[in-house]
Design goal:
The chain is built from eleven helices and 13 strands. By secondary structure, the protein is of the alpha+beta class.
Amino acid sequence: MQEINRTEIATLGEFGLIKHLTEQIELKNPSSLYGVGDDCAVLKYPADKQVLVTTDLLMEGIHFDLTYVPLKHLGYKSAMVNFSDIYAMNGMPKQMVVSIALSKRFCIEDMEDFYEGLRTACEAHGVDLVGGDTTSSLTGLAISITCIGEGDPDKVTYRNGAKDTDLICVSGDLGAAYMGLQLLEREKAVFNQQLKEASESKNQKMEEELLRAQPDFSGKEYLLERQLKPEARRDIIEALAAANIKPTAMMDISDGLSSELLHICTQSKVGCRIYEEHIPLDYQTAVMAEELNMNVTTCALNGGEDYELLFTVPISDHEKISQMEGVKLIGHITKPELGCALICRDGNEFELKAQGWNPLK
């Protein structure tokens, strides 16, 4: 690709930049009548479908750190977190609108990388990129994504449908994304300290070597992938449909298992019991938690950014769920007066508390 200096992003202007980034996009969904290029996108959904809409705002320094997050991965992850919200309603994402505020330190190649990640995610999940907006920013990169999807009226799943004796299930494993974040933050701190020491000693050669060096993440690749390149669980939604299972309540795990489960219990007006021994963990997660002297169960309960699905099903679906690959039964719903509790491996019972991610804290 021809080198384009950083001033040319302003030379292109807003519409020139949008055209440059989106001119190769082809619409795939019948509900996408018209995409980028006019004042609005035009959508037409069948009368027998319900329209699902979700939006996420991601701020540099709050939700991501460009010190260790490549822009291509950021684009991919930004799309996936929105797809995950649609899947959490038992629906299918169809269209996406992307708005970006960027500072002068970004060049056209940076935005090409970001949009490459977006397009890769969209192609993998059959989603059309149909519009958006760009503007300048004085405080870093800001990303706002709105995703539109569809669901069958009798299959759309809310948080308020869990009932006493329902089974509590999760997909995949938990805590790996949080461990990946801790690993990246640790390496960043080590790098910054070494760079500071080299600068204070005026050792230019050491500074140059540090800037070229790459940390050794061998044996921890899965943790990094879970943090930098999460996958929305379309496969689980399809497996539930194939098994003729309609969840009674469902959420995706973005802020942590404990927080999300308490949301379901609060809105459904029920209690719950989950069992520590049944919480799914990957081996690398356990090893990293031990290395950092952290409790792995606490990481799984409160880490967040797993983007796995947490859902409840009637107890009559026990056999079907038990046979479903990638799904783990971790507990059951109870009457509200019993509260929400974690049953530890030693049999002790502790109140479940929402200690997951809080972006306003």
